[in-house]
Amino acid sequence: MTAGPESQTTTPEQPLYGRVLLKLSGDAFAPPGGEFGISEESAQLLAAQLADVMSVGTQTAVVVGGGNIFRGRDAPNMDRASADYMGMLATVMNALALQDALEHAGVPTRVQTAIHMAQIAEPYIPRRAIRHLEKGRIVIFAAGIGQPYFSTDTTAAQRALEINAEAILKGTRVDGVYDKDPTTNPDAVRFEQLEYIEVLRRGLQVMDATAISLCMENGLPIIVFDFRVEGNIKRALTGEPIGTLVHAGG
User: Fold this and answer.
1) What are the two backbone dihedrals, phi and then psi, of residue 101, each rounded to the nearest 5 degrees?
2) Which residue, 20, 60, 72, 235, could crosslink 83 as a Cys pair with Cβ 3.0–4.6 Å?
3) DSSP track, 182-202
4) pLDDT band at residue 250, thresholds of 50, 70 and 90?
5) In the predicted model, what is the mean pLDDT of residues 151-175?
6) CA-to-CA distance for 93 and 111, rounded, in angstroms?
């Protein structure tokens, strides 16, 4: 794995990473104001940022959530497995929306799903995904890992490791990781860097414990940042100090 940004130098337009995985929650596709559903404008804004990323030459894969459509954990009276499968199908809808927006922006894109649905997407095959990335295509991974009880955070860590990504970019609606919720605590402090074990020890809401553990075991850095700020995805790739870096330390 590539070492974290603190040990490297880069020019403003030179990518720090050769291949990354961008994790986006379903909220990234929601209409302004937090309503449920898919906003065409939100998908287009994401596509514009990703099209800009292509100009720096970093191979980019994306894992999308589905919380803007359905969250299994918000249906406590449903069978957990059934609710999780419904959530996986919601991620496919977001993936197709992002693919459409990217293709309209002139970016070649492939969607791969962990649940077989050949009429609308390819099955997830790691070597094929890597080949698409090498050919300059953005690959969107949908339907989680195809099994209930696993979050899209865990999917992001798993897929990143399988395609040999050098970092996970975790796009959120806040500008990094804080010691407490900054939306309700004006005195919240943002971390510039954190070690994996500190995230687990403090119970910080970066990614779930399974995902953090996978990244820690394999030395995969995570950059948490606000994806809504135009150009932030490219800034993260080129090593600008935005958001919070979660890494092994040392």
Assistant:
1) -65, -40
2) 72
3) TTT-TT--EESEEEHHHHHHH
4) low
5) 95
6) 11
CA atoms within 13 A on the CB side of 124: 20
What is the C-alpha separation between 21 and 59, in angstroms, rounded?
A: 9
**Other beta carbons within 10 Å of 28:** 25
The whole-angstrom separation of Cα 5 and Cα 168 is: 13
Bridge partners for 110 per DSSP: 139
| CA count, 13 A, side-chain hemisphere, 249 | 8
Task: Identify the CATH class of 5-247.
Answer: alpha beta
CA nearest 172: which of 16, 28, 6, 73? 28
Write out the H or E segment, with its range, that includes residue 222.
Answer: strand 222-226
Sorted by where each begins, the domain ranges of the chain are: 5-247
Q: What is the pTM of this model?
A: 0.90
- Smallest CA-to-CA distance from 178 within 224, 212, 228, 247 is with 224
Burial of 32 (0-12, 13-18, 19+ CB in 10 A): exposed
Residue of 26, 149, 155 whose CA lies nearest to 79: 149
Q: Which residue has the tokens 């309700």?
A: 184
Tokens in use for 114? 């962990």
Kindly tell me the sign of the dihedral angle through the C-alpha atoms of 162, 165, 135, 104. positive
Reported confidence tier of residue 88, pLDDT bands at 50, 70, 90? very high
Answer yes or no: is pLDDT of 8 > 60. no
Q: Which H helix or E strand runs over 172?
A: strand 167-172
